[in-house]
Write a structure and sequence with these properties.
The protein is mainly alpha-helical. Helix content is 59%, strand content 5%. Helix 3 packs parallel to helix 15.
Length: 650
């Protein structure tokens, strides 16, 4: 296996990039297409190790300088061009909030540290990532960090047995990854320093210490096969097809398999690296070879196209759009490959190529610097589109919690002992209005405070915890996180015990609509139990129906440059009609099932209950600060519209 051309690797590169693209295009059947990046990491480890083994065979030593030069020539020009073009388009299209965030992404992407930025913000699959146009650069940051480490290993490998270094690093990487998996699955028995890492699942996804083993695994396979003839065995060929197929089946069926996906990828594709004549034949096909050759550039360009297109339409992609974006990704990938190769070809001296690349870096840094230091260059927007950011609206909402403010969205393992009241506005009047539920209970605080200034307002909110969980056999588990589900159940039971002995008060139940199982018989039984029990304790209970959430970032949809006309915005920023319609029906049904306590909120959003006239904007101001939480102004108008229907306990 001394040849630099290993056809099946071309197949794997083409396969890896295509399943990532299909995953981002949300094509059915590619739910776990993001694992193409895991495969890329293994491929990278294999190829760079194989290349350096060839280099040592020819030159009798590892040429570390040449290793870095090759990596820079391949990675940097294409990345910097992509980042620059992304910055220019973001300046033209994005809201100040999005441009500010993109500026942080761009600067860290150029410094190969964007994985750390994204880890500090949210998990890879968090909804807020849908418009992070450089989100995909996290993997390039991990690659570059690995290259630096690998270069150091090559340098030491000049004096010490290189294979031994790789084995030691592989063992260390595997131990770290297994310890992280253990801690993730058994948080009550966390291992050492891993217990102090916030969002460990995101850390496993984004950070090098948990990814290095994939590069090393590919490298160790390259070392094991170097100088040996390919294994011609029907068993290896069969295993190389059967085992990845089984792994994909497990990923679709079992949560544990999804958690351990990195290990499954390494085990599955190890057999393909060793030998697979079938994939070798496929890898020699011209279309596969072409896709493999430009796979890096396809990866760079496909996600920005998807994000900008979706930002323009503010809708999910339809079939035609998916096809167009796929073709654009291939064509733009080829164009970027050609431009990058031209810049680094013999047409230019090394110094001239470096000046071009560095100039690209300077221009994009200036754009992102301006976006960062001016909070998104708000001056690009017409005056009537300059709105509060979601963070500012959240800050206004928080200002109403002027007596007690406790973060109800902390890590699940910290929630067991969280105080029941997490947001409170005190009053001289002992009469108290309690709002019980998830984060939607919290967004009521401005409205309740303004509507009932003579009452103490106490918000008993806990993120993704609904009042019904823990009663009559119903338990809601957010993303199947047992710790959070158990904490919610314990909290609800504590709340019920509190209300059993508390003075008669006003209790408002309010929550997100759309949780798994919130239309089940158990959920209905739990809702009836909660209402009947609280009423039997002497409290006045009101269940405020769900808000007709837009399911889009309405404020971000409005706060855009005038490249978007007012007419287009009136069509673009209406919200997700299907979601609004389904919640309307749910509210209507609950108002019939619980007529004594339930307030149907449809009328507030839809005049005369006409779904075609439902609106999430009022007088040009969005009612929502994000996809489903009310702004302070929205909360005030919301509560005021049915203030008289709230049953107050005197």
């Amino acid at each position: 296996m001394n040849s630099k051309i290993i056809p099946r690797l071309d197949f794997l590169r083409a396969f890896a990039v295509l399943i990532v693209v299909f995953f981002h295009l949300k094509i059915p059947g590619f739910k776990f297409g993001y694992l193409g990046v895991d495969l890329f990491f293994m491929l990278s480890g294999f190829l760079m190790t194989h290349t350096m083994m060839l280099d040592r065979q020819k030159y009798k030593t590892f040429r570390v300088k040449q290793f870095f030069i090759r990596r820079i020539r391949r990675i940097v020009p294409s990345l910097f061009i992509t980042v620059l073009m992304t910055g220019l388009l973001a300046f033209v299209f994005f809201s100040p909030e999005q441009l500010f965030d993109t500026s942080k992404q761009g600067l860290t992407a150029q410094l190969f540290s964007s994985n750390i930025l994204f880890f500090s913000q949210a998990g890879y699959f968090a909804p807020e990532n849908e418009f992070r146009v450089l989100l995909h650069t996290w993997s390039l940051a991990v690659e570059e960090q690995c290259y630096i480490l690998f270069g150091l290993m090559l340098f030491v490998g000049k004096k010490v047995n290189f294979s031994a270094i790789m084995i030691i690093m592989g063992v260390l990487g595997l131990v770290v990854l297994c310890a992280a998996y253990w801690t993730l699955l058994n948080p009550e028995r966390a291992i050492g320093w891993l217990a102090s890492i916030p969002n460990l699942d995101a850390a496993i996804f984004y950070l090098l210490p948990f990814r290095i083993v994939q590069f090393i695994a590919g490298g160790l396979i390259a070392i094991a096969l170097f100088g040996r003839q390919p294994i011609k065995s029907i068993w290896f060929t069969s295993l190389g097809i059967i085992i990845p197929t089984i792994a994909m089946f497990l990923l679709f069926q079992f949560t544990l398999a999804q958690t351990l996906s990195s290990v499954l990828v390494m085990i599955s594709f190890a057999f393909v690296f060793v030998s697979n004549p079938i994939l070798d034949k496929l890898g020699r096909l011209p279309l596969i070879k072409f896709t493999a050759k430009i796979s890096y550039q396809i990866y760079l360009t496909h996600w920005p196209f998807i994000v900008f297109w979706r930002y323009w339409t503010f809708e999910e992609l339809n079939t035609t759009e998916i096809a167009i974006l796929f073709v654009l990704s291939i064509v733009s990938g080829w164009g970027l490959f050609w431009v990058s190769n031209y810049i680094t070809s013999s047409n230019f001296s090394w110094a001239k190529s470096a000046r071009i690349v560095f100039g690209t870096f300077i221009v994009s840094s200036f754009i992102f610097g301006a976006g960062l230091f001016t909070q998104g260059v708000e001056g690009r927007l017409p005056e009537d589109r300059r709105l509060n950011t979601p963070a500012k609206w959240r800050e206004i909402e928080t200002s109403y919690c002027n007596d007690i403010l406790v973060d109800g969205e902390v890590e699940p393992d910290q929630l067991i002992n969280l105080p029941l009241v997490t947001c409170s506005r005190a009053s001289s009047n002992p009469a108290t209005i309690y709002a019980l539920g998830d984060s939607h209970a919290r967004h009521l605080v401005p409205g309740l405070s303004e509507a009932f200034p003579d009452h103490t307002i106490a918000i008993m909110y806990f993120s993704s915890c609904i009042a019904q969980s823990g009663f009559e056999g119903f338990v809601y588990s957010y993303n199947e996180r047992a710790i959070q589900a158990n904490a919610c159940v314990e909290r609800n039971r504590r709340a019920m015990e509190f209300f059993r002995t508390a003075a008669p008060s006003t209790i408002i139940i309010h929550q997100f609509s759309g949780y798994d199982g919130d239309n089940s018989p158990e959920w209905y039984a739990a809702a009836k139990y909660v209402i009947d029990t609280l009423t039997s304790y002497g409290h006045a209970v009101t269940w405020i129906g769900s808000v007709l959430r837009p399911n889009i970032l309405v404020a971000d949809c409005i706060a855009v440059p005038d490249i978007f006309s007012d007419e287009y915005l009136s069509e673009r920023c209406v919200g997700d009609i299907d979601t609004i319609s389904s919640i309307c029906k749910k509210n209507q049904a609950l108002s019939q099932d619980f007529p004594a306590v339930f307030i149907n909120t449809n009328q507030f959003f839809c005049p005369n209950l006409d779904i075609d006239k439902c609106s999430v904007i009022r007088d040009g101001i969005p009612l929502f600060r994000d996809k489903h939480h009310l702004t302070a102004e929205g909360s005030i108008a919301f509560i005021q519209s049915f203030k008289e229907q709230i049953a107050l306990q005197d």
